[in-house]
């Protein structure tokens, strides 16, 4: 459920009519709803209410906007970060170091040092090589890094191949077959307190079964590690819960997910970490755009050319992803359209042969479910500026990321005087 709804025939974000934001901030623009973020955070936490010891660490990559992170920090969330930049954002948003988990397959030496300097709560180590480097750096500083070993359970998450992370051929984690040996080696090093294991098998999961299979494999591993004398006190179950992008999609609810987690992990006697991203932020945001013009198609439907493009919302071009497109002031008429952006690539297509609200030049429209992996994946391709972001809270709103103009970007490109 979200707080983007028609009131008197006009699409609102909470109590703000979207035409007002288009008028005052311009388009394209991402619009987030605070009430929706808070609701999703609460529903997710409620789903896990029977887990006694836990940390919910928002996957910052899904939406790193500082105001969004602040909303979630207020809800008691920590952060799952995958770069030094995300780590600094989490801290800037007020998340305390002990609630920050550092994931990622390619943490640089500088990033490991940053995590140690800030004394973050947990490193999820993805290779023996990374573990050795972290141990050495921590020991040099007289520190002990808190860490889990990320396992690759070789489970097919049944999602888009580009966002699947738990199959043997994926780059993430340590293969289960090597996990016992790797754990024993890294646990013996000064500088690391290797206190558990972590897993994340993919994103936009529409089925709990692959997750349950992965958690089952972890259970066996935990028992083996304990039998070998290791104290396993922490387990990180990653993120991945899907969201509905269109009518008829029914991914598992947080309550169903929580019930499965409780059933599978009930006797583990560990502190659990969760790293949800999309399920918190996805439906809490829309990309508001304006139709530039409508152009007759060659032998197909007309092209509705909007002022948002693949540089602003990359998911359709990258993954063939579906985002619902709705008129902000629907006339009640429908059309079949190819909805495209202005960028000079055929890939800059949001929807093909889409049955949608009738749209004409100058109309406003939204792409829904754009609060996760939207603005965060924007680029300035075709020398377009960076899209701004707005956070709505009831009957007020604030610009929480300014439009970075093409001029501003150009001003950071010095041309050497020897040219
Ligand atoms: N934890 C780790 C270690 C991850 O790699 C990810 C996402 C998450 C948590 C959060 O997963 P979520 O709950 O959001 O599914 N750009 C793609 C999604 C990439 C996800 C990468 N990892 C998209 O637009 O679909």
What does this structure look like?
- The active site is at residue 344.
- It comes from Parerythrobacter jejuensis.
- Homodimer.
- Its EC number is 4.1.1.20.
- It is a single chain.
- By secondary structure, this protein is of the alpha/beta class.
- It folds into two domains: 4-32 and 282-410, Lyase, Ornithine Decarboxylase, Chain A, domain 1; 34-281, Alanine racemase (TIM Barrel).
- It contains twelve helices and 21 strands.
- The radius of gyration is 23 Å and the shape is globular.
- The termini are far apart.
- Ligand LLP is lined by residues 59, 61-62, 80, 103, 163, 165, 200, 203-204, 238-241, 275-279, 315, 319, 373.
Question: What attributes does this structure have?
Answer:
2 domains, nine-stranded mixed sheet, 21 strands, Lyase, Ornithine Decarboxylase, Chain A, domain 1, eight-stranded parallel barrel, alpha/beta, TIM Barrel, binds ligand LLP, 419 residues, 25% strand
Can you describe this structure in just a few lines?
With 419 residues, this protein is α/β, with parallel strands linked by helices. The protein is built from twelve helices and 21 strands.
| Count of helical stretches | 12
User: What is the level-2 CATH architecture name of the largest domain?
Assistant: Alpha-Beta Barrel
What structural class results from the helix and strand content?
A: alpha/beta
Largest sheet: 9 strands, mixed
How many E-type strands?
21
Terminal residue distance: 56 Å
Bound molecules: ligand LLP
Portion of residues within helices: 25-40%
Low-confidence stretches: none
Q: What fraction of the residues are assigned to beta strands by DSSP?
A: 25-35%
CATH class of the largest domain: Alpha Beta
Apparent shape: globular
Rg over CA atoms, rounded to whole Å, is 23 Å
CATH topological fold name of the largest domain: TIM Barrel
Number of domains: 2
Q: Determine the CATH superfamily of the largest domain.
A: Alanine racemase
Mean pLDDT equals 97
Enzyme class: lyase
Function: Specifically catalyzes the decarboxylation of meso-diaminopimelate (meso-DAP) to L-lysine.
Cofactor: pyridoxal 5'-phosphate
Active site: 344
